[in-house]
Specification:
By secondary structure, the chain is of the alpha/beta class. The chain is built from 20 helices and 9 strands. A 5-stranded parallel β-sheet has the order 2-3-4-1-5, sandwiched between helices. The protein has a two-stranded parallel ribbon with strand order 6-7. It has a two-stranded antiparallel ribbon with strand order 8-9. It binds zinc ion.
Protein backbone atom coordinates (compact mmCIF):
# COMPACT_ATOMS: atom_id res chain seq x y z
CA UNK A 1 0.00 0.00 0.00
CA UNK A 2 1.80 3.08 -1.19
CA UNK A 3 0.81 6.47 0.10
CA UNK A 4 -0.50 7.67 -3.21
CA UNK A 5 -3.35 10.02 -3.99
CA UNK A 6 -5.88 7.35 -3.18
CA UNK A 7 -4.53 6.63 0.29
CA UNK A 8 -7.12 6.61 3.02
CA UNK A 9 -6.57 5.85 6.66
CA UNK A 10 -7.99 2.46 7.64
CA UNK A 11 -10.59 3.90 9.99
CA UNK A 12 -12.11 5.68 7.01
CA UNK A 13 -11.50 3.16 4.31
CA UNK A 14 -12.99 0.33 6.38
CA UNK A 15 -15.73 2.30 8.08
CA UNK A 16 -18.82 0.06 8.22
CA UNK A 17 -21.48 1.00 5.70
CA UNK A 18 -24.20 -1.35 6.88
CA UNK A 19 -25.61 -2.11 10.34
CA UNK A 20 -24.42 -5.71 10.19
CA UNK A 21 -20.81 -4.59 9.63
CA UNK A 22 -20.65 -2.67 12.92
CA UNK A 23 -18.66 -4.55 15.59
CA UNK A 24 -19.94 -5.24 19.10
CA UNK A 25 -23.04 -3.01 19.09
CA UNK A 26 -25.65 -5.55 17.97
CA UNK A 27 -28.26 -4.37 20.46
CA UNK A 28 -28.16 -0.83 19.09
CA UNK A 29 -27.94 -1.71 15.40
CA UNK A 30 -30.71 -4.34 15.61
CA UNK A 31 -33.06 -1.94 17.41
CA UNK A 32 -32.45 0.79 14.85
CA UNK A 33 -32.84 -1.60 11.95
CA UNK A 34 -36.15 -2.82 13.38
CA UNK A 35 -37.34 0.75 13.83
CA UNK A 36 -36.71 1.29 10.13
CA UNK A 37 -38.39 -1.95 9.09
CA UNK A 38 -41.47 -1.25 11.22
CA UNK A 39 -41.40 2.44 10.34
CA UNK A 40 -41.29 3.64 13.93
CA UNK A 41 -38.87 6.52 13.74
CA UNK A 42 -38.38 8.87 16.68
CA UNK A 43 -37.39 12.51 16.31
CA UNK A 44 -34.31 12.29 18.42
CA UNK A 45 -31.79 9.64 19.31
CA UNK A 46 -28.81 9.88 21.57
CA UNK A 47 -25.92 7.45 21.27
CA UNK A 48 -23.52 7.49 24.19
CA UNK A 49 -20.34 5.51 24.76
CA UNK A 50 -16.55 5.73 24.77
CA UNK A 51 -14.67 7.24 21.85
CA UNK A 52 -14.06 5.23 18.71
CA UNK A 53 -16.78 2.61 19.20
CA UNK A 54 -18.96 3.59 16.24
CA UNK A 55 -21.38 6.31 17.35
CA UNK A 56 -21.20 8.57 14.27
CA UNK A 57 -20.79 5.53 12.02
CA UNK A 58 -24.12 4.18 13.25
CA UNK A 59 -25.69 7.65 12.93
CA UNK A 60 -24.67 7.82 9.26
CA UNK A 61 -25.87 4.30 8.45
CA UNK A 62 -29.19 5.16 10.06
CA UNK A 63 -29.51 8.35 7.99
CA UNK A 64 -28.55 6.41 4.89
CA UNK A 65 -31.07 3.66 5.49
CA UNK A 66 -33.89 6.14 6.08
CA UNK A 67 -33.28 7.88 2.77
CA UNK A 68 -32.18 4.86 0.72
CA UNK A 69 -34.06 4.14 -2.47
CA UNK A 70 -33.44 0.38 -2.42
CA UNK A 71 -33.76 -0.37 1.27
CA UNK A 72 -33.39 -4.08 2.00
CA UNK A 73 -34.32 -5.47 5.39
CA UNK A 74 -33.52 -2.17 7.06
CA UNK A 75 -30.04 -2.00 5.52
CA UNK A 76 -28.97 0.76 3.10
CA UNK A 77 -27.98 -0.36 -0.42
CA UNK A 78 -24.89 1.89 -0.57
CA UNK A 79 -25.41 2.13 -4.33
CA UNK A 80 -28.21 4.63 -4.89
CA UNK A 81 -27.25 8.29 -5.28
CA UNK A 82 -28.64 9.14 -1.84
CA UNK A 83 -26.45 6.48 -0.16
CA UNK A 84 -23.40 7.55 -2.16
CA UNK A 85 -23.89 11.20 -1.26
CA UNK A 86 -24.20 10.43 2.43
CA UNK A 87 -21.03 8.31 2.30
CA UNK A 88 -19.24 11.21 0.61
CA UNK A 89 -20.70 13.72 3.04
CA UNK A 90 -22.37 15.76 0.31
CA UNK A 91 -26.05 14.91 0.84
CA UNK A 92 -28.06 18.15 1.16
CA UNK A 93 -30.36 16.75 3.84
CA UNK A 94 -27.73 15.36 6.18
CA UNK A 95 -26.00 17.89 8.43
CA UNK A 96 -23.17 17.10 10.71
CA UNK A 97 -21.97 19.30 13.51
CA UNK A 98 -19.00 18.57 15.71
CA UNK A 99 -19.91 20.39 18.90
CA UNK A 100 -16.38 19.93 20.24
CA UNK A 101 -14.94 22.28 17.63
CA UNK A 102 -17.92 24.52 16.76
CA UNK A 103 -19.18 26.24 19.83
CA UNK A 104 -21.16 29.42 19.70
CA UNK A 105 -23.90 31.32 17.98
CA UNK A 106 -23.42 29.43 14.71
CA UNK A 107 -24.60 26.21 16.34
CA UNK A 108 -27.87 27.86 17.24
CA UNK A 109 -28.37 29.11 13.70
CA UNK A 110 -27.43 25.74 12.21
CA UNK A 111 -29.94 23.99 14.45
CA UNK A 112 -32.70 26.48 13.68
CA UNK A 113 -32.03 26.25 9.93
CA UNK A 114 -32.12 22.47 10.08
CA UNK A 115 -35.66 22.61 11.37
CA UNK A 116 -36.97 25.36 9.11
CA UNK A 117 -36.79 23.82 5.64
CA UNK A 118 -38.18 20.64 4.15
CA UNK A 119 -35.71 18.05 2.98
CA UNK A 120 -34.48 18.73 -0.54
CA UNK A 121 -33.98 15.18 -1.77
CA UNK A 122 -35.14 12.55 0.64
CA UNK A 123 -38.00 11.89 3.00
CA UNK A 124 -36.09 12.85 6.09
CA UNK A 125 -33.63 15.47 7.11
CA UNK A 126 -30.90 14.58 9.58
CA UNK A 127 -29.00 16.61 12.03
CA UNK A 128 -26.10 14.65 13.47
CA UNK A 129 -24.32 16.31 16.40
CA UNK A 130 -21.11 14.75 17.64
CA UNK A 131 -19.98 15.40 21.23
CA UNK A 132 -23.32 17.07 21.83
CA UNK A 133 -22.54 17.72 25.52
CA UNK A 134 -20.18 20.49 24.36
CA UNK A 135 -22.98 22.63 22.91
CA UNK A 136 -23.61 25.98 24.55
CA UNK A 137 -26.67 26.61 26.66
CA UNK A 138 -28.16 28.76 23.88
CA UNK A 139 -27.69 25.94 21.38
CA UNK A 140 -29.35 23.45 23.74
CA UNK A 141 -32.26 25.84 24.15
CA UNK A 142 -32.67 26.15 20.39
CA UNK A 143 -32.64 22.37 20.12
CA UNK A 144 -35.12 22.00 22.94
CA UNK A 145 -37.53 24.41 21.31
CA UNK A 146 -37.47 22.26 18.16
CA UNK A 147 -37.80 19.01 20.07
CA UNK A 148 -40.90 20.29 21.82
CA UNK A 149 -42.67 20.49 18.47
CA UNK A 150 -40.49 18.71 15.96
CA UNK A 151 -41.30 18.97 12.24
CA UNK A 152 -42.13 15.46 11.09
CA UNK A 153 -39.26 15.32 8.58
CA UNK A 154 -36.53 16.11 11.09
CA UNK A 155 -34.39 13.53 12.92
CA UNK A 156 -31.74 14.50 15.43
CA UNK A 157 -29.01 11.98 16.07
CA UNK A 158 -26.86 13.05 18.96
CA UNK A 159 -23.61 11.38 19.96
CA UNK A 160 -21.68 11.90 23.18
CA UNK A 161 -18.94 10.47 25.34
CA UNK A 162 -20.41 12.31 28.37
CA UNK A 163 -24.19 11.81 28.49
CA UNK A 164 -24.30 13.08 32.08
CA UNK A 165 -23.41 16.55 30.76
CA UNK A 166 -26.40 16.69 28.42
CA UNK A 167 -29.38 18.55 29.95
CA UNK A 168 -32.11 16.28 31.27
CA UNK A 169 -34.70 18.20 29.24
CA UNK A 170 -32.94 17.06 26.05
CA UNK A 171 -32.26 13.51 27.24
CA UNK A 172 -35.90 12.95 28.15
CA UNK A 173 -36.92 13.68 24.56
CA UNK A 174 -34.44 11.26 23.02
CA UNK A 175 -34.36 7.53 22.54
CA UNK A 176 -31.21 6.53 24.34
CA UNK A 177 -28.65 3.95 23.28
CA UNK A 178 -25.52 3.04 25.17
CA UNK A 179 -22.63 1.72 23.08
CA UNK A 180 -20.10 -0.67 24.57
CA UNK A 181 -16.35 -0.74 24.47
CA UNK A 182 -15.26 -3.18 21.80
CA UNK A 183 -13.82 -6.48 23.02
CA UNK A 184 -10.16 -7.08 22.35
CA UNK A 185 -10.93 -10.27 20.38
CA UNK A 186 -13.24 -8.34 18.08
CA UNK A 187 -10.67 -5.62 17.51
CA UNK A 188 -8.12 -8.32 16.67
CA UNK A 189 -10.52 -9.89 14.14
CA UNK A 190 -11.23 -6.53 12.59
CA UNK A 191 -7.55 -5.58 12.25
CA UNK A 192 -6.79 -9.06 10.88
CA UNK A 193 -9.41 -8.57 8.18
CA UNK A 194 -7.97 -5.18 7.20
CA UNK A 195 -4.43 -6.61 7.12
CA UNK A 196 -5.60 -9.41 4.84
CA UNK A 197 -7.33 -6.97 2.53
CA UNK A 198 -4.24 -4.74 2.42
CA UNK A 199 -1.92 -7.76 1.98
CA UNK A 200 0.01 -6.90 5.14
CA UNK A 201 1.60 -9.70 7.14
CA UNK A 202 1.26 -9.20 10.86
CA UNK A 203 2.23 -11.65 13.60
CA UNK A 204 -0.16 -12.59 16.41
CA UNK A 205 1.75 -10.76 19.11
CA UNK A 206 1.64 -7.54 17.11
CA UNK A 207 -2.07 -7.96 16.44
CA UNK A 208 -2.62 -8.39 20.13
CA UNK A 209 -0.54 -5.33 21.00
CA UNK A 210 -2.30 -3.13 18.43
CA UNK A 211 -5.74 -4.24 19.62
CA UNK A 212 -4.78 -3.72 23.22
CA UNK A 213 -3.41 -0.24 22.67
CA UNK A 214 -6.74 0.60 21.01
CA UNK A 215 -8.21 0.24 24.51
CA UNK A 216 -11.73 -0.65 23.44
CA UNK A 217 -11.80 1.82 20.54
CA UNK A 218 -11.62 0.25 17.11
CA UNK A 219 -10.75 3.57 15.49
CA UNK A 220 -7.69 4.01 17.72
CA UNK A 221 -6.52 0.47 16.98
CA UNK A 222 -6.90 1.13 13.25
CA UNK A 223 -4.81 4.27 13.64
CA UNK A 224 -2.06 2.33 15.40
CA UNK A 225 -2.22 -0.29 12.67
CA UNK A 226 -1.72 2.42 10.02
CA UNK A 227 1.28 3.74 11.95
CA UNK A 228 2.67 0.23 12.22
CA UNK A 229 2.35 -0.20 8.45
CA UNK A 230 4.09 3.07 7.74
CA UNK A 231 6.95 2.04 10.04
CA UNK A 232 7.29 -1.68 9.43
CA UNK A 233 6.06 -1.90 5.84
CA UNK A 234 4.12 -4.91 4.63
CA UNK A 235 5.48 -7.24 7.31
CA UNK A 236 4.72 -6.22 10.86
CA UNK A 237 6.91 -8.01 13.38
CA UNK A 238 6.47 -7.67 17.11
CA UNK A 239 10.07 -6.79 18.02
CA UNK A 240 10.20 -4.04 15.42
CA UNK A 241 6.78 -2.71 16.35
CA UNK A 242 7.60 -2.65 20.02
CA UNK A 243 10.80 -0.75 19.34
CA UNK A 244 8.92 1.70 17.17
CA UNK A 245 6.22 2.30 19.75
CA UNK A 246 8.92 2.54 22.42
CA UNK A 247 6.80 0.80 25.01
CA UNK A 248 8.17 -0.67 28.17
CA UNK A 249 7.45 -4.37 27.65
CA UNK A 250 5.84 -6.61 30.24
CA UNK A 251 9.19 -7.83 31.56
CA UNK A 252 9.89 -4.28 32.71
CA UNK A 253 7.03 -4.43 35.16
CA UNK A 254 7.83 -7.92 36.37
CA UNK A 255 11.27 -6.62 37.18
CA UNK A 256 9.85 -3.58 38.94
CA UNK A 257 7.47 -5.70 41.02
CA UNK A 258 10.30 -8.07 41.95
CA UNK A 259 12.30 -5.12 43.27
CA UNK A 260 9.24 -3.98 45.22
CA UNK A 261 8.86 -7.47 46.65
CA UNK A 262 12.50 -7.48 47.75
CA UNK A 263 12.18 -3.94 49.08
CA UNK A 264 15.18 -3.04 46.95
CA UNK A 265 14.76 0.71 46.62
CA UNK A 266 18.29 1.25 45.35
CA UNK A 267 17.95 -1.10 42.36
CA UNK A 268 14.46 0.06 41.55
CA UNK A 269 15.61 3.67 41.20
CA UNK A 270 18.61 2.71 39.08
CA UNK A 271 16.41 0.59 36.86
CA UNK A 272 13.70 3.26 36.59
CA UNK A 273 16.31 5.82 35.54
CA UNK A 274 17.67 3.50 32.87
CA UNK A 275 14.13 3.23 31.48
CA UNK A 276 13.75 6.99 31.42
CA UNK A 277 17.10 7.28 29.65
CA UNK A 278 15.72 4.99 26.96
CA UNK A 279 12.96 7.53 26.43
CA UNK A 280 10.00 5.84 28.12
CA UNK A 281 7.12 8.13 28.74
CA UNK A 282 6.36 8.70 32.44
CA UNK A 283 2.59 8.49 32.09
CA UNK A 284 2.93 5.25 30.10
CA UNK A 285 5.15 3.88 32.85
CA UNK A 286 2.65 4.82 35.53
CA UNK A 287 -0.26 3.29 33.57
CA UNK A 288 1.79 0.16 32.90
CA UNK A 289 2.62 -0.33 36.57
CA UNK A 290 -1.00 0.22 37.54
CA UNK A 291 -2.15 -2.37 35.06
CA UNK A 292 0.54 -4.78 36.21
CA UNK A 293 -0.57 -4.60 39.85
CA UNK A 294 -4.19 -4.86 38.80
CA UNK A 295 -3.36 -8.05 36.90
CA UNK A 296 -1.58 -9.46 39.96
CA UNK A 297 -4.58 -8.62 42.13
CA UNK A 298 -6.96 -10.31 39.71
CA UNK A 299 -4.91 -13.50 39.68
CA UNK A 300 -4.57 -13.52 43.47
CA UNK A 301 -8.23 -12.88 44.16
CA UNK A 302 -9.87 -14.91 41.41
CA UNK A 303 -7.21 -17.46 40.37
CA UNK A 304 -8.70 -17.01 36.90
CA UNK A 305 -6.04 -16.15 34.33
CA UNK A 306 -8.69 -15.91 31.63
CA UNK A 307 -9.58 -12.51 33.02
CA UNK A 308 -6.24 -11.07 31.90
CA UNK A 309 -6.08 -9.39 28.50
CA UNK A 310 -2.68 -10.95 27.88
CA UNK A 311 -1.07 -13.65 25.79
CA UNK A 312 -0.66 -17.13 27.34
CA UNK A 313 3.06 -16.68 27.98
CA UNK A 314 2.42 -13.49 29.92
CA UNK A 315 -0.51 -15.03 31.78
CA UNK A 316 1.78 -17.76 33.08
CA UNK A 317 4.33 -15.19 34.16
CA UNK A 318 1.59 -13.50 36.17
CA UNK A 319 0.57 -16.73 37.84
CA UNK A 320 4.18 -17.24 38.99
CA UNK A 321 4.59 -13.68 40.16
CA UNK A 322 1.24 -13.61 41.98
CA UNK A 323 2.51 -16.37 44.28
CA UNK A 324 4.94 -13.92 45.85
CA UNK A 325 2.22 -11.56 47.09
CA UNK A 326 -0.85 -11.60 49.29
CA UNK A 327 -4.01 -9.79 48.36
CA UNK A 328 -3.51 -7.27 51.17
CA UNK A 329 -0.01 -6.44 49.94
CA UNK A 330 -1.12 -5.73 46.39
CA UNK A 331 -4.06 -3.66 47.63
CA UNK A 332 -1.68 -1.54 49.68
CA UNK A 333 0.58 -1.02 46.67
CA UNK A 334 -2.37 -0.06 44.48
CA UNK A 335 -3.54 2.40 47.11
CA UNK A 336 -0.22 4.23 46.95
CA UNK A 337 -0.44 4.33 43.17
CA UNK A 338 -3.95 5.77 43.24
CA UNK A 339 -2.90 8.37 45.78
CA UNK A 340 -0.13 9.47 43.45
CA UNK A 341 -2.40 9.62 40.43
CA UNK A 342 -4.03 12.97 41.24
CA UNK A 343 -0.72 14.55 42.16
CA UNK A 344 0.96 13.10 39.08
CA UNK A 345 -1.16 15.02 36.58
CA UNK A 346 -0.40 18.39 38.12
CA UNK A 347 3.14 17.77 39.23
CA UNK A 348 5.90 20.00 37.90
CA UNK A 349 8.36 17.17 38.49
CA UNK A 350 6.74 13.91 37.50
CA UNK A 351 9.98 11.99 37.50
CA UNK A 352 10.72 12.83 41.13
CA UNK A 353 7.16 11.99 42.07
CA UNK A 354 7.43 8.57 40.45
CA UNK A 355 10.78 7.93 42.12
CA UNK A 356 9.40 8.71 45.56
CA UNK A 357 6.38 6.60 44.79
CA UNK A 358 8.58 3.63 43.84
CA UNK A 359 10.57 3.97 47.07
CA UNK A 360 7.36 4.10 49.05
CA UNK A 361 6.15 0.95 47.31
CA UNK A 362 9.37 -0.84 48.29
CA UNK A 363 9.12 0.35 51.87
CA UNK A 364 5.47 -0.43 52.42
CA UNK A 365 5.86 -3.89 51.10
CA UNK A 366 8.62 -4.86 53.49
CA UNK A 367 7.99 -2.71 56.56
CA UNK A 368 4.28 -3.14 57.01
CA UNK A 369 3.43 -6.59 58.25
CA UNK A 370 0.33 -8.03 56.78
CA UNK A 371 -2.10 -7.86 59.70
CA UNK A 372 -4.70 -10.06 58.11
CA UNK A 373 -2.05 -12.76 57.75
CA UNK A 374 -1.11 -12.41 61.42
CA UNK A 375 -4.74 -12.74 62.42
CA UNK A 376 -5.05 -15.86 60.33
CA UNK A 377 -2.02 -17.40 62.07
CA UNK A 378 -3.32 -16.57 65.54
CA UNK A 379 -6.74 -17.93 64.65
CA UNK A 380 -5.32 -21.20 63.44
CA UNK A 381 -3.21 -21.52 66.63
CA UNK A 382 -6.35 -20.96 68.67
CA UNK A 383 -8.28 -23.48 66.65
CA UNK A 384 -5.58 -26.15 67.04
CA UNK A 385 -5.49 -25.57 70.76
CA UNK A 386 -1.88 -24.46 70.62
CA UNK A 387 -2.79 -21.17 72.16
CA UNK A 388 -3.99 -21.76 75.70
CA UNK A 389 -5.76 -19.20 77.85
CA UNK A 390 -4.02 -18.30 81.15
CA UNK A 391 -4.70 -15.62 83.70
CA UNK A 392 -1.63 -13.58 83.26
CA UNK A 393 0.38 -13.85 80.16
CA UNK A 394 3.24 -11.48 80.06
CA UNK A 395 4.48 -12.41 76.60
CA UNK A 396 1.20 -12.03 74.80
CA UNK A 397 0.34 -8.80 76.59
CA UNK A 398 3.64 -7.48 75.42
CA UNK A 399 2.94 -8.64 71.90
CA UNK A 400 -0.46 -6.98 71.93
CA UNK A 401 1.15 -3.71 72.89
CA UNK A 402 3.56 -4.14 70.01
CA UNK A 403 0.83 -5.02 67.57
CA UNK A 404 -1.29 -2.18 68.84
CA UNK A 405 1.55 0.23 68.21
CA UNK A 406 2.04 -1.10 64.70
CA UNK A 407 -1.66 -0.88 64.07
CA UNK A 408 -1.85 2.70 65.30
CA UNK A 409 1.02 3.63 63.08
CA UNK A 410 -0.72 1.91 60.19
CA UNK A 411 -4.01 3.60 61.04
CA UNK A 412 -2.45 7.00 60.90
CA UNK A 413 -1.29 6.15 57.43
CA UNK A 414 -4.29 4.32 56.10
CA UNK A 415 -7.15 5.79 58.16
CA UNK A 416 -8.37 2.27 58.65
CA UNK A 417 -9.71 1.04 61.96
CA UNK A 418 -11.19 -2.33 61.28
CA UNK A 419 -8.00 -4.38 61.57
CA UNK A 420 -7.09 -2.85 64.93
CA UNK A 421 -10.56 -3.53 66.23
CA UNK A 422 -10.39 -7.08 65.01
CA UNK A 423 -7.15 -7.67 66.88
CA UNK A 424 -8.42 -6.07 70.06
CA UNK A 425 -11.57 -8.13 69.96
CA UNK A 426 -9.51 -11.22 69.59
CA UNK A 427 -7.29 -10.56 72.56
CA UNK A 428 -9.40 -8.57 74.98
CA UNK A 429 -11.60 -11.42 76.15
CA UNK A 430 -8.80 -13.54 77.55
CA UNK A 431 -5.09 -13.59 77.53
CA UNK A 432 -3.30 -16.29 75.65
CA UNK A 433 0.04 -17.87 75.85
CA UNK A 434 1.92 -19.52 73.06
CA UNK A 435 3.41 -22.76 74.43
CA UNK A 436 7.19 -23.06 74.48
CA UNK A 437 8.47 -25.23 71.63
ZN1 LIG B 1 -29.27 3.34 -1.10
Amino acid sequence: MAETKGYQVSARKYRPQRFEEVSSQEFVTETLRNAIVTDKIAHAYILSGPRGVGKTTIARIFAKALNCKNLKNGEPCNECDSCIEITKGTHPDVFELDAASNRGIDDVRAIQDAAKFYPIKGKKKFFIVDEVHMLTGAAFNAMLKILEEPPEYLVFILATTNPEKVPQTILSRCQRFVLKRIKIEEIIESIKAIAKEEKIKVDDESLFLIAKLGDGALRDAQGIFDMAVSFCGSNIKFDELNKFLNLPDKETFFKISDYIQEGNSKEIILYFNSLIDQGFDLQTFYNGLLEHLRNLLIIISTKNIELLNESDVIRNRYTQSAGKYTEGQVLRLLKILFESEGRFKFSGNQKLLLESMLIELCRVNTEVKDLSEMIAVVNSLKKNGNLKPVKQSFRITESIVEIDKAVKKEEAKQEKKSLAEMIKEMFNAEDYEIPKQ
